Amino acid sequence: MKERSLFYNEVHVAGRRYHEADLVWDELKVGKKLIMELDTDIAGIDPNAIALIFQSKNGEQYLLGYIPRSDNAELAAFLKMGWARCFECRISAIKPEAHYEDQIHVTIRIVRCRN
Q: I need a labelling partner for 47 at 20 to 30 A (CA). Which of 1, 21, 40, 84 fits?
């Protein structure tokens, strides 16, 4: 049997308190897919910044935060090479009572790429 995906990494959502998670908190559930996107607007601060974006039921997009700087360099290199479709990011834990930096965790998996 062929694997559909392989584990790549699990991280917390960095900077969650400074972005829009509170606007969609009730929609955030374990298993929800997030969009990973290179954020060139903050390249001067972090050239490997990867934004984590939630798309709500009505199609609006909300910036939840970022892949932590300590974990983003290798993944950013893949995204810069155009391999974004080979990765999938899903919410793996929601901890409302935890510190802001530990409230949302995501799992990143490598998925089967098709040309």
A: 21
What contacts 38, CB < 8 A, 6 or more positions away?
A: 49, 50, 51, 76, 79, 80
* C-alpha–C-alpha distance, residues 103 and 48, integer Å: 22
CA pair distance 67, 23, nearest whole angstrom: 19
Q: How far is CA 40 from CA 54, 55, 87, 106, in A?
A: 18, 20, 19, 21
pLDDT attached to residue 5 = 87
Q: Phi/psi at 98 (nearest 5 deg)?
A: -80, 170
Contacting residues for 79 by C-beta, under 8 A, at least 6 apart: 36, 37, 38, 50, 87
- Whole-angstrom Cα distance, residue 5 to residue 99? 30
Q: Is the pTM of this model over 0.90?
A: yes
